[in-house]
Amino acid sequence: MIGTGRASLRKLADRTLLSRNRLAAEAGIYTQTLKRALDGERVQRPIAVRITSALNRLLGTDYEPEDIDGLRIVGESEDS
User: Fold this and answer.
1) Strands 68-69 and 7-8
2) Domains contained in the chain, number
3) Positions in the chain short of pLDDT 50
4) Quick check: pTM over 0.85?
């Protein structure tokens, strides 16, 4: 499955059917960091890339961090 258009971070995370702890481990980040991202807090670009890469690997998609609604990146405009 190829990711096209925009997708919701929370919906993608739910589609993995993994616990938040396991999804964070797959992304190589702390569970609390994933929770903050899911809650709409801004994260550093390398964290956003790790989350996106894990979701792509698990779901067979090819999203970029900018394609995922709710994945807010420090220093980037909401309109990008």
Assistant:
1) parallel
2) 1
3) 1, 80
4) yes
